[in-house]
Amino acid sequence: MGSSSWFMLFLFSIASLHFHQPIVTVRGDTDLIEKTCKSTKHYGLCVSSLKSNTSSLKSDTKGLAVIMVGIGIANATATVSFLSSQLLSATANDPLMRKVLKDCADKYSYAGNSLQASLQDLATQTYDYAYMNIMAAADYPNACHNGFRRYPGLAYPAELTVREDGLKHICDVVLGIIDLL
Ligand SMILES: *[C@@H]1O[C@H](CO)[C@@H](O)[C@H](O)[C@H]1NC(C)=O
Ligand SMILES: *[C@@H]1O[C@H](CO)[C@@H](O)[C@H](O)[C@H]1NC(C)=O
After folding, report:
1. Is the pTM value of this prediction over 0.90?
2. Which atom of ligand 1 approaches the CA of 54 most closely?
3. Quick check: CB of 101 below 6 Å from ligand 2?
4. Which amino acid residue places its CA nearest to atom 3 of ligand 2?
5. Ligand 2 centre from 173 Cα, in Å?
6. Which of 92, 124, 138, 145 could form a disulfide with 171 if both were Cys (CB 3.0 to 4.6 A apart)?
7. What is the rounded distance in angstroms from the CA atom of residue 62 to the CA atom of residue 59?
8. pLDDT (tens digit, 9 = 90+) per residue, 108-147?
9. CA distances from 82 to 16, 75, 88, 89 (A)
């Protein structure tokens, strides 16, 4: 082989090294997801949520926090829509129920805003502010629940229990990830 062929072979080896790189990285990042989720309160929820977004495989720990916050925003927003549809149906002749549901929709919308604000804090690496905003987001479902407790005649809908727990668990996971930053 002439020296130019050796050179081509050399280039080819470099190229194949790079070609192998992504495989190593992907496996490493699945490890990162699992390792990160182990330090949260809800390992299963954490892993399945993060793996549902392919960006997680290319993310560092802070990126995983950002993705989980996005999942929380979607969750809170879905509950606002659910409550709004409940408001439109069934309760036209029940002003108290309407009022309490409307308050709940507002609270879940504030939860979404707090989660949104935490994205800014993560971007500027002001992690204690991010932590506070996530704590606030996790607390808004309590404010909704308390609205029902104020009126013993009003049953707290089972569907809201599921949504309350769902959002709180997502926030717990985010807090666990922020603790690592
Ligand atoms: C994945 O996460 C990123 C970062 O939060 C977000 O921009 C993107 O919309 C998410 N993708 C899906 C499919 O939800
Ligand atoms: C989001 O909200 C729903 C409630 O409809 C809940 O069942 C679900 O587990 C929540 N969590 C995630 C990660 O989507």
Report:
1. no
2. 1
3. no
4. 163
5. 13
6. 138
7. 8
8. 999 999 999 999 999 999 999 999 999 999 999 999 999 9
9. 51, 11, 10, 11
